[in-house]
C-alpha cells in the first residue's frame, strides 16, 4: 500500500490492580502479563508504545520488582515509549472533591518525575469516566491530552466515519485534547488473528480523503495480554503478540506513534463537547451514568459518602497539621478513593468484601489521623453530629470517639448502618452487601446447559458459572443488611424463611422520632416509634473511653395482652466465613459448627463472641435477658472476570425473645456490643 495512504496507530496499555488486592494476584499478573509484554515489546524497538500503570502498581513494582521500573525507563529514554499519568490511586476523578483530584494527579506527576525523570503530558481517566468539568482541572494541572472511548463521541452525535484523530474540548475557556479509543480495535486486539486486524486497518485506510493518513488509537487494559482467561496461552505461548508486532514492522503503511507524537503530526479535528459517559459496557452496567452506581447500591453510596466525609476532615487540618501528618492523612484518604470497590460490572469490585474493606480501612485511618489533630492529641473525646451523611435528604446521627464510630439512621428504622473500630486495626465491622437481583442472574440456569466452543473471547463476551448450584442462592433482600433492625417474628417462622423473606413491620424500616443527649463522658441517641398497638423505644449510648455500644429496648403494649417473638438483627463482616481463624465462641457451649459461615439456632444464651484472630479483634454481644439466637451467612452471586461466583458477605445474628406483655405493660432488654483487641 502506498505511503501516501497510511494508518497512524497509537497503541498503548493501561495496567492496574486495586488497593487491597492479594499479593499473589499482583505477582501472577506480573509474571503472566506485565513482564512478558514489555520483554517482547523491547525486542521490537521501532514499534512505539504508550503505557499507564496505576500508582498502586508502580509502588508495588518499586518494592517487589524494581528491575521492571528500569525496563520501563529504558524504553522511555530510547524514545520507544511514552508514559501517561492519572490519579495515583486510580480514583474516578469526577467522583472525588476537586482538591483531591489535584492531589491525586500531582502525586502521580511527582512519582513519574522522580522515578523516570519524565514529565507526563497526558493522563489516563480511570474507567474512562468523563464529565465536562474535568477539562478545567486537567488544564490546570498542565495536562495536554487524555483518552476516552469512541462511544463518548457517538453519544455526542458524531457519525462513525467522523471518529478518528483527536479533538479539543474546554471548560471555562481551559482546553484539553481528547483521543477516542477505537471500540472495534478493543474487541479485535488481542482476541482475533493478526490478518483480521490488518484487514480492519486496510478498510480504514480507504476512508482517507484529503489527509495523507488517518489516526487510530487503542489504549486498553494491559491485563487482556495474559491475565484475562485464556489470553496468556494465546498471546505468548501461541505467539500472538510476536506475530502482531512483526506484522506492524512488515507493513510500513501502518506507522506506530506515541500520543505526544500523534499530537505533533496531526492537528485537532476541532472542538467537541462530550456528555458525562464511560465505555459502552460501563454505561450498560450503571444504567447510563457512572454515578447511578451510588443509587443502585446503597453500600457503594455509603462508601462514597464516607470518603467525602473523611475528605472534609482532612481538609480541616491543612492549616495547622505538620507536613508529615498532612501527607500521611492525604495518602490514606487517596488510597480509600481507589475506584474498584465503588461499582460493579465485570471488573468492579463492589461485591468483593476485601476490596471494600481495604477502602474503609484507609478512610478510617485517615479520619483518625485528622481527628487526633482536630482534638489536639487528646486521648479521649466524644462528638455527636446530626447531618445528612448519605445525602438522601434525611438526617443521620453520627456518634464518634477515639475508639469507635457509630452511625445511625433514625429515618430508616433507627438502624445502625456503620460501626468503625478505630483502635487498630481500622475496620468497618458492619460492611455487609445485601443480596439484590442482577441482569445476569437470569442467564445462570441457561449457562449450566451451555457447552459451546472454547475459543478465546473478549472478557465482555464470556459467561462462565464457577460452581454448580448457584441458582439456589438467588434470593434477594428486601432491605439493606445493616444492624439494629427490629423484627416482630411469627411463632412458626424458621431461620431460612426469615433469611429470605422476613416480615416487614412498622418498626423495621419506618422513621423513629429521636433526641440526642450528651454530657462530658457519654452520648445517647433516644429513639421511639409509635404504632397503633405498641410503642418501641431504643436508646444507643457510647462512652468516650470505651469501645462498647450500649443498646436499650423498651416495648410498651397499648392493647390487651401481647404475645410474640421479638428479634434484633445484626450483620457483621469479618471477611472470611470459612476461615478457621474466624469463628463463633459461646461461653460454656461448643457449637457443632463454629465457622462464621455456619447456620443454626442456639437456645438460652447471654453472650456471643465473633472472633477474628487474623486481625486480632473480637466482637462481643452481651444480653441482659437470656435469648435464643439465630445465625446464618449472607452469600451473594456476582459476575467477575473469571465467571459467576459465590461471595461471602457477612454473618447475620438475630437474638430473639419470647415476649408476653400484659395490657398497658412494658418489656425491656439491653444489649452491649463491644469490639476489642484479642489480648
Secondary structure: elements and pairs:
Elements: E1 6-15, H1 23-42, E2 49-53, H2 55-64, H3 66-78, E3 81-83, E4 85-86, H4 98-116, E5 122-124, H5 134-140, E6 145-149, H6 150-155, E7 167-171, E8 174-181, H7 183-188, H8 194-205, E9 213-221, H9 231-237, H10 240-250, E10 254-257, H11 259-265, H12 280-286, H13 293-296, H14 298-316, H15 323-335, H16 353-374, E11 382-387, E12 396-401, E13 404-409, E14 415-421, E15 427-428, H17 444-448, E16 485-489, H18 495-500, H19 506-509, E17 513-518, E18 522-530, E19 534-543, E20 548-557, E21 562-572, E22 582-585, E23 600-612, E24 617-640, E25 643-661, E26 666-677
Helix pairs in contact: 1-3, 2-3, 14-15, 14-16, 15-16
Can you summarize this structure?
This protein is an alpha+beta fold and 679 residues long. The chain has three domains: 6-279, 7-stranded beta/alpha barrel, CATH 3.20.110; 290-428, no CATH class; 440-677, Distorted Sandwich (Beta-galactosidase, Chain A, domain 5), CATH 2.70.98.
The low-confidence parts are none
What does the radius of gyration come to? 28 Å
The figure for the number of domains is 3
Percent of residues in helices:
25-40%
Based on the structure given, which CATH architecture of the largest domain is correct?
Alpha-Beta Barrel
Q: Quick one: overall form?
A: elongated
CATH class of the largest domain: Alpha Beta
Beta-strand residue percentage: 25-35%
Amino acid at each position: 500500500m502506498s505511503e501516501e495512504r497510511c494508518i497512524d496507530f497509537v497503541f498503548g496499555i493501561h495496567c492496574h490492580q486495586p488497593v487491597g488486592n492479594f499479593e499473589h494476584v499482583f505477582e501472577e499478573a506480573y509474571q503472566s502479563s506485565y513482564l512478558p509484554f514489555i520483554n517482547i515489546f523491547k525486542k521490537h524497538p521501532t514499534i512505539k508504545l504508550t503505557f499507564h500503570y496505576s500508582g498502586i502498581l508502580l509502588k508495588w513494582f518499586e518494592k517487589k520488582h524494581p528491575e521492571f521500573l528500569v525496563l520501563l525507563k529504558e524504553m522511555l529514554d530510547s524514545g520507544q515509549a511514552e508514559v501517561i499519568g492519572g490519579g495515583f490511586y486510580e480514583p474516578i476523578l469526577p467522583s472525588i472533591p476537586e482538591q483531591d483530584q489535584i492531589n491525586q494527579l500531582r502525586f502521580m506527576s511527582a512519582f513519574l518525575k522522580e522515578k523516570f525523570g519524565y514529565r507526563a503530558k497526558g493522563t489516563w481517566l480511570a474507567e474512562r469516566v468523563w464529565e465536562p468539568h474535568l477539562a478545567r482541572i486537567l488544564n490546570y494541572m498542565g495536562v495536554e491530552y487524555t483518552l476516552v472511548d469512541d462511544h463518548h463521541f457517538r453519544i455526542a452525535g458524531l457519525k462513525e466515519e467522523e471518529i478518528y484523530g483527536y479533538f479539543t474540548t474546554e471548560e471555562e475557556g481551559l482546553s484539553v485534547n481528547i483521543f477516542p479509543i477505537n471500540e472495534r480495535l478493543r474487541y479485535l486486539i488481542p482476541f482475533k488473528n493478526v490478518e483480521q486486524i490488518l484487514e480492519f486497518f486496510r478498510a480504514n485506510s480507504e476512508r482517507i480523503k484529503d489527509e495523507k493518513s488517518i489516526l487510530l488509537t487503542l489504549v486498553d487494559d494491559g491485563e487482556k495480554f495474559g491475565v484475562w482467561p485464556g489470553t496468556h496461552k494465546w498471546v505468548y505461548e501461541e505467539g500472538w503478540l510476536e506475530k502482531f508486532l512483526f506484522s506492524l514492522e512488515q507493513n510500513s503503511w501502518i506507522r506506530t506513534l506515541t500520543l505526544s507524537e500523534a499530537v505533533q503530526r496531526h492537528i485537532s479535528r476541532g472542538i467537541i463537547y462530550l456528555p458525562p459517559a464511560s465505555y459502552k459496557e460501563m454505561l450498560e452496567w450503571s444504567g447510563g451514568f457512572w454515578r447511578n452506581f451510588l443509587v443502585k447500591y446503597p453500600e457503594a453510596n455509603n462508601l462514597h459518602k464516607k470518603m467525602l466525609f473523611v475528605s472534609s476532615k482532612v481538609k480541616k487540618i491543612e492549616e495547622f497539621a505538620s507536613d508529615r501528618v498532612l501527607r500521611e492523612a492525604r495518602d490514606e484518604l487517596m488510597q480509600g478513593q481507589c475506584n474498584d470497590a465503588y461499582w460493579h460490572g465485570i471488573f468492579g469490585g463492589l461485591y468483593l468484601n476485601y476490596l471494600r474493606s481495604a477502602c474503609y480501612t484507609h478512610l478510617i485511618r485517615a479520619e483518625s489521623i485528622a481527628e487526633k489533630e482536630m482534638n489536639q492529641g487528646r486521648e479521649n473525646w466524644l462528638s455527636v453530629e446530626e447531618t445528612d451523611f448519605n445525602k438522601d435528604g434525611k438526617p443521620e446521627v453520627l456518634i464518634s470517639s477515639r475508639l469507635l464510630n457509630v452511625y445511625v439512621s433514625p429515618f430508616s428504622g433507627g438502624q445502625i448502618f456503620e460501626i468503625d473500630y478505630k483502635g487498630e486495626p481500622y475496620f468497618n465491622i458492619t460492611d455487609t452487601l445485601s443480596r439484590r437481583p442482577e441482569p445476569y442472574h437470569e442467564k445462570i440456569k441457561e449457562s449450566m446447559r451451555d457447552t459451546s466452543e472454547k475459543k478465546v473471547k473478549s472478557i465482555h463476551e464470556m459467561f462462565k458459572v464457577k460452581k454448580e448450584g448457584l441458582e439456589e442462592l438467588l434470593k434477594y433482600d428486601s432491605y439493606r443488611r445493616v444492624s439494629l433492625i427490629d423484627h416482630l417474628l411469627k411463632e412458626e417462622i424458621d431461620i431460612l424463611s426469615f433469611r429470605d423473606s422476613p416480615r416487614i413491620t412498622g418498626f423495621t424500616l419506618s422513621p423513629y422520632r429521636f433526641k440526642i443527649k450528651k454530657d462530658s463522658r457519654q452520648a445517647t441517641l433516644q429513639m421511639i416509634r409509635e404504632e397503633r398497638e405498641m410503642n418501641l423505644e431504643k436508646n444507643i449510648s457510647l462512652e468516650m473511653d470505651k469501645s462498647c455500644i450500649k443498646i436499650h429496648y423498651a416495648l410498651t403494649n397499648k392493647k390487651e395482652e401481647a404475645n410474640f417473638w421479638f428479634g434484633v438483627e445484626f450483620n457483621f463482616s469479618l471477611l472470611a466465613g470459612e476461615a478457621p481463624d474466624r469463628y463463633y465462641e459461646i461461653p460454656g457451649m461448643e457449637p457443632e459448627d463454629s465457622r462464621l459461615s455456619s447456620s443454626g439456632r442456639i437456645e438460652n444464651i447471654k453472650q456471643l463472641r465473633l472472633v477474628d484472630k487474623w486481625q486480632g479483634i473480637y466482637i462481643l454481644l452481651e444480653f441482659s435477658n437470656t435469648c435464643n439466637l439465630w445465625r446464618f451467612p449472607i452469600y451473594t452471586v456476582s459476575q467477575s472476570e473469571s465467571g459467576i461466583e459465590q461471595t461471602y458477605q457477612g454473618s447475620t445474628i438475630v437474638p430473639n425473645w419470647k415476649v408476653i406483655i400484659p395490657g398497658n405493660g412494658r418489656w425491656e432488654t439491653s444489649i452491649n456490643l463491644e469490639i476489642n483487641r484479642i489480648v
